[in-house]
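Aim 2 progress update. The chain analyzed this quarter is reproduced below.
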Amino acid sequence: MNKRATLLVASVLTLTGCGGKEKGLELERQKLTLDLMKAQNEQLATLTQKESELRALEKKNQGALQEIERERAELQALQEKTAQKERALQEAVAKEEARLKSEEDRLKAESKAVSDDHLKMQQAWREITTKRAELDLRLAVIEKAQEEARLAKEAERRAEVERKRPEVMERMKRRQPFLEELAAMAAKLVPASQAIEQPRSTVRKALLDRFEKTGVAAIEDEDAFALQATKTASEYFRSITGEKDDGQTTAGALGQAFVRAAGAAGSTDFEKWRQDYLKRGRVSRHLAITPVTTYFAANEMIAFRVAIPDAMRLYKAENGAGPKTHDEFMEKIIKANRIRLPDLPLGQRYVYDPKREELMVEHPQ
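Predicted structure tokens:
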């Protein structure tokens, strides 16, 4: 636009310099001058407006640039924080991974140990099963031998009974008066208050029947016979008088029980009888305990030298120690392993000694 105005001014000047031709040309020149000035003013106004707009834009751009710089600074700070958190997270993850690796190694070691223990237990169980099978086989052989020995012993016993039958009959006949005397004495000592409900004749007959059922009179040993007879009488007397058992079974204990129950009346006769009987040396006042290994004959020792020791070894292998009581021994060793013990005479019994871990026989001395 400026270049065009300059050309117009130059043209006007040229026309003027030519001598001022026509008046119209002057007017044209003036008009052109006015147009040029108007155009210049408009252009100047436009340029001014654009300059203002440019300055406003520059100012706006400068604010935007500052905002961008601020946001850039905030972004950089945020990136630094994020980087720090990421480093901390990486460190925490590394520590957790190390802990998990250590825990995994520990669990693997424990699992291996458990697996090894399980294998050992399986091996031990197989060994125990094999050992038990061997023991069952040996027990079967032992039981067969025991049964054969029992049958042989029973046959010997029967033969011996037949052989000694006359002697036994003579012994029973000889002892019958003693048993009748003991029964009569027990009946006599029944308190009068109880004699109404339990007549003395009934007591005497019932006690004699009990002597006959238990075979007291047939016991070979005199001491054992006297002990069993007085024990039977004492137990029956306590059952009808309500006297508590104090655990003693000697003739002396029986006499004391009768004296306590009957009072002074009748006790003198029994005490005299007891003293006379003791003078004859017919009552054993103590019991002896002998190991079974020295008590039985060789053909009866299969259970004591083979079956019981094997059962004890197996029981201690499974429980760490032997039985603690007599009842536990009889239940876990004898009954559980089906061991047959030789029969004992009346007045004798088996006793298990936990300290010695040995089966004994309690018998009169």
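Residues 161 and 168 are 8 Å apart (CA to CA). The longest strand covers residues 358-364. These observations will guide the mutagenesis experiments scheduled for the next reporting period.
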